[in-house]
């Protein structure tokens, strides 16, 4: 039977133990002390896991690169059954780690993460005596859309060792992995960031054990991004961008309406509304007109422009400037984000450009960048990094869902995050 390994990639030991219990209740067989957890809590977390789960396989994800024997000894003496060594480590490291593993009765799993030719390396480490390999796409690389399944397919056809697979697995991809020849399916985020850890572990268990070969429709990256940006909030996205991307001073004037789409940029001046309304005519469904006007006290958007935008099925408008006609706009179902509302309008002089780089709310916006607006504000995601940011913001969103669950269960936010321990010590 294919084993399920839950990867405890959190930095708070108490949370890790709670999550591990819930994951085991849902069907996880192996418990991984993830690398961040080991770096945060040291070998003590291995000891605690061993004490809590005397009969489970515990993997210490040391990701060792040097001094293999000593690190294996440490993990083994603390209670681990399996210790990871990086495939990129020198053969001497792996050989010595294997000797130490024999001495202390543990197994070595060689992690092929980021190795340029993992199949050749897998055969080399097999020849050294390794019998447990991990085909692995790391968390950061996953965010750029890389999956471990193709490499797994190749390795399963060539290797004799037991094969583990890791890299953002979900029930669908875990099932595919099991059917492709994985012996151990390693799942972190899908389980540990769930607001129902046991249920998520059970979903993986059921998927891995099922014989179904349901083909899931592969979405385009663009569809996937739009779906994710609709699910997460501007706050999640800003967190994923290391607090960057938020427009300053621009907020929803139509609360409760969220927008997700691609920017059609307009630069204009002092209430000149010609280019903004011309931009409506070259835009369509999914587009968001993003306007820099240079004057926040003269309206360059109003009821007539809004009705035209509704007719052309635009997603919304974002204006570094002012809007008017809210008596009319409030009757139209159209999201408007702006800096100000005033009754006085400018003139259509035709100054400015469409689809050039602009600054809006102190953020640079290029045509085609992703714009997301909700009741917290508006964020700009540069099109070149949009997929990665979408995936990272989904991880933020999931982690927060899990924290909500813990707080509902009685924890405080400071307690759940062990804030006192993590205050800046500098
Ligand atoms: O070792 C790891 C990262 O280096 C993770 O534990 C592994 O990738 C599984 O987590 P996820 O399912 O979130 O990818």
TrEMBL record:
Pfam family, one: RraA-like
Molecular function GO terms recorded: 3-dehydro-L-gulonate-6-phosphate decarboxylase activity; hexulose-6-phosphate synthase activity; orotidine-5'-phosphate decarboxylase activity
Alphabetized InterPro entries for the sequence: 3-hexulose-6-phosphate_synth, Aldolase_TIM, Bifunct_HPS/DMK_prd, HPS/KGPDC, OMPdeCOase_dom, RibuloseP-bd_barrel, RraA/RraA-like, RraA/RraA-like_sf
Domain Orotidine 5'-phosphate decarboxylase: 3-204
EC number: 4.1.2.43
SUPFAM superfamilies in UniProt: Ribulose-phoshate binding barrel, RraA-like
Lineage: superkingdom: Archaea
GO biological process, one term: 'de novo' pyrimidine nucleobase biosynthetic process
Reaction(s) catalysed (UniProt annotation): D-ribulose 5-phosphate + formaldehyde = D-arabino-hex-3-ulose 6-phosphate
Keyword terms: Carbohydrate metabolism, Lyase
Protein name: 3-hexulose-6-phosphate synthase
Biological source species: Methanimicrococcus stummii
């Amino acid at each position: 039977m294919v084993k399920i390994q839950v990867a405890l990639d959190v930095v708070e030991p108490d949370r890790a133990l709670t999550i591990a219990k819930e994951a085991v209740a849902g069907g996880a067989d192996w418990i991984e002390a993830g690398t961040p957890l080991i770096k945060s809590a040291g070998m003590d977390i291995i000891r605690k896991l061993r004490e809590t789960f005397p009969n489970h396989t515990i993997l210490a994800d040391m990701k060792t690169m040097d001094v293999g024997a000593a690190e294996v000894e440490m993990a083994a003496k603390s209670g681990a059954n399996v210790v990871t060594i990086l495939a990129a480590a020198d053969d001497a490291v792996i050989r010595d780690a294997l000797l130490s593993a024999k001495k202390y009765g543990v197994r070595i799993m060689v992690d092929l993460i980021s190795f340029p030719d993992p199949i050749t390396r897998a055969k080399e480490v097999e020849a050294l005596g390794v019998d447990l390999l991990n085909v692995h796409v790391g968390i950061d690389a996953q965010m750029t859309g890389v999956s471990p399944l193709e490499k797994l397919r190749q390795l399963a056809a060539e290797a004799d060792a037991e094969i583990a697979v890791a890299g953002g697995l979900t029930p669908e991809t875990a099932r595919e992995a099991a059917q492709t020849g994985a012996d151990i399916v390693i799942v972190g985020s899908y389980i540990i960031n769930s607001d129902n850890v046991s249920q998520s572990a059970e979903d993986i268990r059921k998927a891995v054990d099922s014989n179904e070969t349901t083909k899931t429709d592969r979405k385009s990256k663009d569809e996937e991004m739009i779906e994710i940006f609709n699910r997460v909030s501007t706050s999640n996205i800003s967190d994923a961008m290391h607090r960057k991307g938020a427009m300053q001073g621009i907020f929803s004037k139509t609360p409760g309406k969220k927008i997700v789409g691609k920017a059609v940029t307009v630069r204009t001046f002092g209430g000149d509304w010609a280019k903004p309304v011309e931009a409506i005519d070259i835009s369509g469904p999914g587009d968001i007109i993003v306007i820099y006007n240079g004057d926040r006290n003269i309206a360059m958007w109003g009821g007539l422009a809004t009705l035209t935008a509704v007719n052309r099925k635009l997603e919304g408008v974002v204006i570094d400037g002012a809007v008017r006609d809210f008596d009319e706009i409030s009757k139209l179902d159209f999201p408007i984000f702006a800096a100000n509302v005033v009754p006085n309008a400018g003139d259509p002089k035709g100054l400015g450009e469409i689809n050039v780089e602009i600054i809006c709310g102190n953020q640079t916006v290029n045509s085609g960048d992703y714009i997301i607006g909700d009741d917290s504000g508006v964020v700009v995601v540069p099109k070149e990094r949009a997929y990665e940011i979408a995936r990272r913001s989904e991880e933020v969103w999931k982690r927060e869902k899990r924290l909500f669950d813990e707080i509902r269960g009685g924890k405080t936010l400071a307690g759940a995050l062990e804030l006192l321990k993590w205050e800046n010590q500098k």
